[in-house]
Design goal:
Residues 72-171 form the Cytochrome c domain. The protein is mostly helical. It has a domain at 65-169: Cytochrome c-like domain (Cytochrome Bc1 Complex, Chain D, domain 2). It is built from six helices and two strands. The protein has helices at 4-32, 65-70, 74-80, 130-138, 140-143, 157-169; strands at 33-35, 41-43. Strands 1-2 form a two-stranded antiparallel ribbon.
Length: 172
Amino acid sequence: MFDTMTLTKIVGSFCGALLIFLLGSWVAEGIYYSGDGHGEEMQAYVIDTGEDEASDEPVEEGPDFEVLLASADPSAGERVFGKCKACHKLEAGANAVGPYLHGVVGRPVDAAEGFNYSGALEKVVDVWTPDHLNHFLENPRGYAPGTAMSFNGLPDAEDRANLIAYLETQDG
């Protein structure tokens, strides 16, 4: 039979279990963490995995970008430009979702007539040099925070060099 005493026992058992859980959590935090309790807590016991030790071996980076650009293949850059075609055009004055890219190498950043720029690029770059284009194409939102360009970037340095070499051939 279901009566108020049974309901009271059920609610009491849930409250007791919750209290035990909260006290156990509080004790565990007190054992494993120390701090003032206001966000700046330091871990009291750290398991050493050896990952924090700095390696004596130098980290190898890829080839210098100037070397890649000097040996870049514009025809391979034309294939890479296929990723850009959705938003950019190569004809001078033909803006799409993004500004036209005719003569972009060496051009001032916000010089595409008729395109409404977000203003984020002007804070970072004045002129589109191959080096600036390289860094921007690698990670547009990371290089110019607040840019309206939604492209994730080109992680491969050789692809970026080929694309910039192709864009250099498109300036008439």
